[in-house]
Amino acid sequence: MKKLLLSAAVSATLAFAGAAMAALPNVSILATGGTIAGSAASNTQMTGYKAGSIGIQTLINAVPAMKQYANISGEQICNIDSANMTSDIQLKLAKRVNELLARSDVNGIVITHGTDTLEETAYFLNLTVKSDKPVVLVGAMRPATAISADGPLNLLNAVKVATSKEAAGKGVLVILNDEINGARDVTKMNTTNVDTFHAPILGALGMMNSDKPAFFRASTKRHTKASEFDISKVKKLPRVDIIYSHADDDGVMAKAAVAAGAKGIVHAGTGDGSIHEKTFPALEQASKKGVVVVRSSRVPSGITTVGTDEWTKAGILESGSLNPQKARILLQLALSKTTNREEIRRIFEQY
Ligand code: ASP
C-alpha cells in the first residue's frame, strides 16, 4: 500500500514537472556573430579582439538560466563581425525568422548580432517579419572572454523579453544594458561603452524591472504584420548609398554612387538635412536620371524636415525622423516595390 502511494506520488510529481516543462514557451536563438560571440587573447582585452568567433551552442551553454524561462534551440545563420553585414544575410535572416514564426511551436525569436549594424538589421526585420510574436535582437559591447562580459546577462534578458506577452505586437525589439528599444528608433550612440543603445528622438519603449521587462510605450509607425513589404520572393535588394556631407563637399561622391549603379541615395546632410551648393547639381542630375534621393541628417537627433523649393522641385524626398542608415534600409525596401516618388514619400511618412 505504502509502495503504491509512493509511486502515485512520484508519477504525480513527474506529471507536474512534465506539465511545467510543456508550459515553457519555445524560443529559437539565431546567431549571426558580433562581440557577443567575440573572443580575445586575455580577459582584460576589450578592443581589437575577433568578433564572431564563438558558436551558438557555446553561447547557450554559458547561460543555463535561460532554461528557466524557455525551451531554447539555437541556429547559426552566420558568424561575422557585423561591420561586414550584407543585405543578402539580412534577407536570409528575415526569411528564416518568418519560417520559424509561422510554426505554432515557436513562440519567440532572439537574434544575437554585432552591435555595429544591429540597428540596421533590426529595422530591416521590423519591416519584413510577418508576425506579432516577439523578435528580439541582442548584442554585447565586451567580448565573451572579457572580465565583466555583458553578453550573458543581455542574452538572458533577451530571452525574458522574447517570452513576455507584452513584447508581442510591439515590432522588433533591441535589448542591451537593461534598456528595451524599438528597432525603428534605436541607434548605437557610444563606440565602446555598454550603455550605447538609445532612441535619441523618441525614447526607449521599456526596461528590465528586476526579473521582468516593463513596457511604457509603443511605436505608432507601421511594422511587422502591418508592413506592406514582402521579401519572400526577393532575391536581391537594390543598391542604395549613403553620402555624408561636410565642408568642401563637391558632389564627387554622389556622381560615384550613380556610376556604381545606385538606385537610391540617402544624403546625410548637415543640420536639417542641408545640401552643399556644390553637391546639389550632382544630386539633381541623379534624381533626373531616376535615382531616388532622400535627405537625412548627420545630426544624431531631430526630424529632417521638408527642405527648400529647389530641393523639392528636384524630386528630393526627406527621411523625417529616420537616421541615414535606417532611411537607407527603408529606401531599399521601397525601391524593391516601386520607383514612384509619391509612393516612396508615402512610405517614408508611414514607416
Ligand atoms: N564589431 C563588432 C560587431 O559589430 C562590435 C560589437 O558587436 O559590439 O560585430
Describe this structure in words.
It is a single chain. The chain is 31% helix and 19% strand. The chain has helices at residues 2-23, 56-61, 87-101, 118-128, 151-162, 252-259, 280-288, 309-313, 324-335, 341-350, and strands at residues 26-33, 71-80, 108-112, 135-138, 173-176, 179-182, 187-188, 197-198, 206-209, 212-215, 240-244, 264-269, 292-297, 317-318. The protein has an eight-stranded mixed sheet, sandwiched between helices. Strands 11-12-13-14 form a four-stranded parallel sheet, sandwiched between helices. Aspartic acid binds next to loops. Aspartic acid binds at residues 33-35, 51, 81-83, 114-116, 139, 141.
Helices and strands, with pairings:
Elements: H1 2-23, E1 26-33, H2 56-61, E2 71-80, H3 87-101, E3 108-112, H4 118-128, E4 135-138, H5 151-162, E5 173-176, E6 179-182, E7 187-188, E8 197-198, E9 206-209, E10 212-215, E11 240-244, H6 252-259, E12 264-269, H7 280-288, E13 292-297, H8 309-313, E14 317-318, H9 324-335, H10 341-350
Parallel strand pairs: 1-2, 1-3, 3-4, 4-5, 11-12, 12-13, 13-14
Antiparallel strand pairs: 5-6, 6-9, 7-8, 9-10
Bound molecules: aspartic acid (ASP).
- Give the N-terminus to C-terminus distance in angstroms: 68 Å
The unique ligands bound to this protein are: aspartic acid
What is the number of helical segments per DSSP (H or I, 4+ residues)?
Answer: 10
Sketch the topology as an H/E string, one letter per element: HEHEHEHEHEEEEEEEHEHEHEHH
Low-pLDDT runs of 5+ residues are: none
State Rg: 23 Å
Give the % helix. 25-40%
Strand order of the largest sheet: 2-1-3-4-5-6-9-10
Mean residue pLDDT: 94
Beta content = 15-25%
Overall morphology: globular
Annotation, overall tally of beta strands: 14
Summarize the main sheet: 8 strands, mixed
In terms of structural class, how would the helical and strand content be classed? alpha/beta
